[in-house]
UniProtKB/TrEMBL annotation:
The modification N6-lipoyllysine is found at residue 63. The lineage of its organism: Bacteria, Candidatus Eiseniibacteriota. It comes from Eiseniibacteriota bacterium. Binds 1 lipoyl cofactor covalently. The gene is gcvH. This is Glycine cleavage system H protein. Its cofactor is (R)-lipoate. GO terms for biological process: glycine decarboxylation via glycine cleavage system; protein lipoylation. GO terms for cellular component: cytosol; glycine cleavage complex.
């Protein structure tokens, strides 16, 4: 299975895509497979600030409840309101319509420290070795 090369990844299975100076964040297809059907997503308010690797929300699935971690430090400038009425978008389109938040990064250098798709694939291989 391949992972998109236009995004960066965290060890906690979030992805981050830089577009027009903002970072769009979601969870990976691997994470959605592990969670099962997503039934609820709790996202932060616009204007909330987060440090990298700190929880920014919660995703609840049939199998479990899991924290969501900010891939970089920044301020929330948008949340995906669609997820409140249709949380299944996270499973259906994890890298598209299933996005969760957009951050205005405090330091874009943090983005470059995230895992590439190849690094992320290696991480998964190591976890399942």
């Amino acid at each position: 299975m391949g992972y998109p090369s236009d995004v960066r990844y965290t060890r906690e299975h979030e992805w981050a895509r830089m577009e027009n100076g903002l970072i769009t964040v979601g969870i990976t297809s691997y994470a959605t497979e592990q969670l099962g059907d997503v039934v609820f997503v709790e996202l932060p308010a616009i204007g909330k600030k987060f440090e990298a690797a700190k929880p920014f929300g919660v995703v609840e699935a049939v199998k479990t409840v899991s924290d969501l971690y900010a891939p970089i430090s920044g301020e929330v400038v948008a949340v995906n309101e669609e997820l409140s009425s249709n949380p299944a978008l996270v499973n259906q389109e994890p890298y598209g319509e299933g996005w969760m938040i957009r951050l205005k990064p405090r330091d874009t250098a943090e983005f470059n420290q995230l895992l590439t798709n190849r690094d992320y694939e290696k991480l998964l291989e190591e976890q399942h070795a």
